[in-house]
Design brief:
The chain has six helices and no strands. The chain is an all-alpha fold. Helix 1 packs antiparallel against helix 2 and helix 2 packs antiparallel against helix 5.
Length: 194
Amino acid sequence: MSHTPPAPTGPTPTGPARPPALRPPRSLRATAWWLADSAGAIPAALGLAWAVAAQAGNGPMWPAAALLVLGGAARALAVAQARLAGQGLAARFQSGLRQVLWPALLPSRMARGALVGEDAHLAVDTIDRTEGLVARFLPLRGASAAAPLLIALAVAPASWVSAMIMLATLVPFVLGLVLAGASPRDGRGRSMRH
C-alpha cells in the first residue's frame, strides 16, 4: 500500500469538490457474501447428517460427500468474495481520509506545535488501522444479525420446534449484546465528563 500524499482536491468543472465521507461506510456486498458463507453451512450440515444416517445403514454415502464438498466450496467462495469486497471498500475509505487529513495536518504542524511523529502517526498509522473495521468488522456485524434467522429458516422444515427454540434464545442473546455494548459507552461518557 502506497503512502504517497494524494493530489489536492479542488473545484471541479461542475462545482466545488465534495469532501469524502469521514464515517466508515457499510458494505452491503461484503455483508451479503458473509451471509452466503452462513448459507453454505446449510449443505455442509445436511451432508454431515446424511453421513451419520448412511453409517447407520440408511442409504448411500456419496450424497453426503457431495453435500460436504458443495458446502465447503460455497463457503470458500463466499469468504473470498467477502474479503475482496471489504478490502476494496476499505481502500476507498482510507483514500478519502487521506485526502482530508494530509492537507490539513502536514502543512499546519508548525503552527499547532505538533511533533513530526504525531502527525505522521495520525496521517498514516491511524488511517491504516481503519482497514479491519471497514473490511471485516462492519460487514460481519451486519451478517451476524441476519445469519441466525437464515439458519432457523433452514432448520424449520426439518423441525419447527428446533427453529422456535433458536429464535426464542436469539432475543435474550441480542438484548445481552446490546446491554454489554451500552455499558462501556456509558463508562466512557462518565470518564470524559470528569
